[in-house]
Write a sequence for this structure.
C-alpha cells in the first residue's frame, strides 16, 4: 500500500499523489499573506456561496470582529481578528501602539495528512493537484478525522440532512454555472436510519471542482487585497520568501512564515501563511505533527500488548489447572 | 520581542499560562497565548457508544482467549460460559459502532478498503473476524454440532481476540488529542489489562465458584496490572496528565479505581466460597473497567478542549527537539522541498 510506504519512508511528496502517474498535475495551494488582510471576509462569503455551505447560525461573540470563531463543517475559510497592544512596525509612533491582526484560516492540505491516513473508508483522498478532499458519497460519518487533524479543521455537520447533489446530467434546477444546487424539496430524502442530521464530515476542497475547470478557488478569486494567493506551491514559496524579506527590511514586528518549510511535522502545508505573531495567537498549533508518523511504532507496541494478553490469560488459566 | 509591552497586561487577573486578554485586546506577556481560549484541535464527535464499545470489545477479545485456554485445561464450564460472554459482547459491539456513525446505513463502507494507516479500518476487519468466529463457535456450541468447525472458529477467535482488545488503544492514540497521543506507549497495554480484568470478572459471575478459579485470578491480575500501567502513563504524561484528575475524568477515575480494586478484593476474598460474593465482586470489577474506558475517553475530550495542552506540549518539543513549523527572518534558508 503506498500510504503505508509513505508512513515508513516519507517521500516528501503528498501521500498518495504519486499514484496518479501521468495524470498528476502540478501541486497547487494557497499562500495567505496576513500582512495585507483587511478582514473583509469576502473569502468566507465566496466560499460559502460557491460551495453551497449552509448557514449555521449567527452568534455575537464579542471577540473583535470574529463571529465564526473557528473552522468547521460549515466554515471552510475563517478570518481571525486579534487586537494587540503592540505597534505594527518597530517601536511604532508612540501614540496608540495598537495593532489589529487579521488572518484568513483554511485547511492546510498537508503533505502528510492525518485525516487522509486515518479515514477508514477511503472517503478522504489525495487529488491529482496534491490537495485533500472528502468524497461525500463515501463518508459514513465515523468522525475519526475530526480529532486526528492537528489543526481542528474538520468537523461533522449536524445540520439537517440532504441528499448528495445530483450527479452530472442528473435533475437539477436551471443553473448556468454547473455547480451543485442547494437541496430542494425533491432532493431532500429523508432520514438516514432515523438520523435527521447530515452526519458527514466536511472541509475545504480547495475548490476541487473549480480546479478541474481551470479556475482558481473562490476565496482567492474574491480576495480584494491578494492576501489569499493561489498558485503552484513552489512558486508561492518563492513569493513568500521574498515577502518575508521585504517585511523584515521594513521592520515589521513578528513576521514569520508558517507551514512553508517541507521539513515540519506534516511535511509542509499545501496552504501556508505569513503571520505577524506566533501561531498560537491565531489559534494555530506551533508545531503540528501528523499523528500517523508514530503509527508504525504504535502498531508494534499494540502487537506486543496483544501477545502479552494472549500469554497472560493462557498462563493464568494453566496455573489454575495445578492449583 | 516577547516581554510585556504595556503595564496593563494581565489586569484581568488570570494567572500566567492561561489566556490573557482584556476585552478583545490581547496583552503580550505570558508565554502561553491562545486565540480567545478557543480549542486548537477539535474534540471527537464520538458519543457514549464508543467508550462502551471499548469495554465490550475488550470483554469479547479477552473472553475468547479465556474460553480457549479453559478448554485446553479441560475446564468445560468456564470454557462455555466465556465463549457465550465473548459472543454476546461481539454481537453488541458492531451495533454500538454503527449507532455512533453519522450515516449508519453506510457502515459497510468501512470494509471497502484495507488500510493499515487507519486503526479504525483495521479494527473493523479484526472485529469482523473475531466476531464472526466467536459467534460461529458459540452457535455451534449451543447446537452441539460440527465439532471440528467449532474448534477452528474458537481458535480463530482466540487469536483475533487480543488484537481486538488492544487496538482501541492505538485507535485513540492515533489522533492529535494531546493526552491520547502522548499516552500511546501505554494505552494498548492498559486496554489489554482492562480487557483481561473484565473477562475474568464476567466469567466469575456466571461460573460456579469451584470452576471459576482461573477467571478470578485473571480479574485480580488484570486490575493490578491496569493500576500499575495507569500510574506509568501518568508519570510519562507529566503536565497534560493532570486532566485525569480534573472534571468528569477525575471523578470517573476515582470510580474506576474504587470499583475495580474493591471488586477484585471481594473476588479474591470471598469468590472462592460464596457465589454471591463472586457475582458482587465480578459486577464491581466490570463496572470499574467500564468506568476506566470512560475515564480515558473523557480525559481526551478535556485535553482537546483546552488549547494550553496543545501549545505547551508543542512548545516543549520545540525547545527540546528544535522542531518547528515557522520560518523567521534570519533563519537559515529553508531547504528546497524534496518533492514537487
Amino acid at each position: 500500500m503506498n500510504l503505508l510506504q509513505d508512513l515508513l519512508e516519507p517521500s516528501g511528496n503528498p501521500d498518495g499523489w504519486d499514484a496518479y502517474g501521468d495524470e498528476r498535475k502540478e501541486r497547487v495551494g494557497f499562500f495567505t499573506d496576513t500582512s495585507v488582510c483587511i478582514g473583509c471576509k469576502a473569502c468566507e462569503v465566496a466560499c460559502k456561496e460557491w460551495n453551497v455551505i449552509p448557514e449555521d447560525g449567527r452568534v455575537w461573540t464579542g471577540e473583535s470582529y470574529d463571529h465564526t470563531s473557528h473552522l468547521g463543517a460549515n466554515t471552510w475559510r475563517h478570518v481571525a481578528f486579534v487586537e494587540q497592544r503592540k505597534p505594527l512596525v518597530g517601536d511604532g509612533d508612540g501614540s496608540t501602539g495598537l495593532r489589529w491582526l487579521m488572518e484568513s484560516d483554511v485547511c492546510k492540505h498537508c503533505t502528510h495528512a492525518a485525516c487522509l491516513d486515518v479515514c477508514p473508508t477511503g472517503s478522504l483522498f489525495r487529488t491529482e493537484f496534491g490537495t485533500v478532499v472528502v468524497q461525500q458519497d463515501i463518508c459514513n460519518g465515523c468522525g475519526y478525522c475530526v480529532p486526528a487533524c492537528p489543526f481542528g479543521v474538520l468537523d461533522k455537520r449536524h445540520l439537517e440532512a440532504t441528499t448528495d447533489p445530483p450527479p452530472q446530467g442528473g435533475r437539477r434546477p436551471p443553473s448556468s454555472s454547473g455547480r451543485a444546487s442547494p437541496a430542494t424539496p425533491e432532493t431532500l430524502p429523508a432520514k438516514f436510519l432515523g438520523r435527521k442530521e447530515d452526519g458527514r464530515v466536511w472541509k475545504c476542497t480547495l475548490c476541487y471542482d473549480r480546479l478541474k475547470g481551470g479556475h482558481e478557488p473562490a476565496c482567492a478569486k474574491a480576495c480584494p487585497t491578494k492576501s489569499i494567493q493561489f498558485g503552484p506551491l513552489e512558486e508561492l514559496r518563492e513569493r513568500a520568501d521574498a515577502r518575508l524579506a521585504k517585511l523584515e527590511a521594513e521592520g515589521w514586528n513578528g513576521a514569520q512564515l508558517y507551514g512553508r518549510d517541507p521539513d515540519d511535522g506534516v511535511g509542509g502545508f499545501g496552504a501556508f501563511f505569513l503571520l505577524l505573531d506566533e501561531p498560537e495567537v491565531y489559534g494555530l498549533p506551533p508545531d503540528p505533527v501528523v499523528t500517523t508518523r508514530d503509527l508504525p511504532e504504535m502498531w508494534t507496541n499494540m502487537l506486543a500488548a496483544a501477545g502479552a494478553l494472549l500469554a497472560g490469560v493462557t498462563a493464568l488459566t494453566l496455573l489454575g489447572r495445578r492449583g | 520581542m516577547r516581554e510585556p509591552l504595556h503595564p496593563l497586561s494581565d489586569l484581568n487577573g488570570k494567572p500566567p499560562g492561561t489566556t490573557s486578554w482584556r476585552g478583545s485586546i490581547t496583552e503580550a506577556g505570558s508565554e502561553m497565548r491562545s486565540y480567545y481560549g478557543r480549542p486548537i484541535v477539535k474534540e471527537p464527535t464520538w458519543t457514549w457508544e464508543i467508550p462502551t464499545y471499548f469495554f465490550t470489545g475488550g470483554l469479547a477479545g479477552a473472553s475468547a482467549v479465556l474460553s480457549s485456554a479453559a478448554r485446553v485445561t479441560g475446564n468445560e464450564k468456564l470454557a462455555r460460559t466465556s465463549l457465550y460472554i465473548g459472543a454476546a459482547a461481539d454481537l453488541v459491539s458492531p451495533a454500538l459502532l454503527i449507532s455512533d456513525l453519522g450515516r449508519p446505513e453506510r457502515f459497510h463502507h468501512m470494509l471497502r478498503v484495507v488500510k493499515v494507516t487507519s486503526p479504525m479500518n483495521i479494527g473493523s476487519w479484526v472485529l469482523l473476524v473475531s466476531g464472526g468466529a466467536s459467534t460461529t463457535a458459540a452457535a455451534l456450541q449451543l447446537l452441539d454440532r460440527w465439532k471440528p468447525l467449532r474448534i477452528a472458529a474458537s481458535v480463530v477467535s482466540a487469536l483475533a481476540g487480543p488484537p481486538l482488545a488492544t487496538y482501541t488503544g492505538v485507535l485513540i492514540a492515533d489522533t492529535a488529542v494531546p493526552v491520547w497521543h502522548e499516552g500511546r506507549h501505554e494505552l494498548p497495554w492498559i486496554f489489554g489489562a482492562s480487557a483481561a480484568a473484565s473477562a475474568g470478572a464476567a466469567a466469575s459471575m456466571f461460573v460456579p465458584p469451584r470452576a471459576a478459579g482461573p477467571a478470578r485470578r485473571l480479574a485480580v491480575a488484570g486490575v493490578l496490572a491496569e493500576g500499575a500501567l495507569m500510574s506509568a502513563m501518568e508519570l510519562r504524561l507529566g503536565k497534560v496528565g493532570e486532566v485525569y484528575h480534573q472534571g468528569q475524568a477525575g471523578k470517573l477515575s476515582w470510580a474506576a479505581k474504587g470499583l475495580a480494586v474493591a471488586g477484585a478484593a471481594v473476588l479474591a476474598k470471598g469468590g472462592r466460597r460464596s457465589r454471591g460474593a463472586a457475582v458482587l465482586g465480578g459486577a464491581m470489577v466490570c463496572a470499574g473497567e467500564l468506568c476506566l474506558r470512560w475515564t480515558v475517553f473523557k480525559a481526551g475530550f478535556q485535553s482537546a478542549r483546552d488549547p494550553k495542552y496543545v501549545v505547551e506540549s508543542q512548545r516543549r518539543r520545540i525547545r527540546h527537539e528544535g522542531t518547528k513549523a515557522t520560518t523567521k527572518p534570519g533563519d537559515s534558508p529553508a531547504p528546497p522541498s524534496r518533492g514537487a
Summary: Residues 2-166+177-289 of chain A form a domain with the Alpha-Beta Plaits fold (CATH 3.30.70.20). Confidence is low (pLDDT under 50) at residues 166-181, 183-188 of chain A. The first strand of chain A starts at residue 28 and ends at 33.
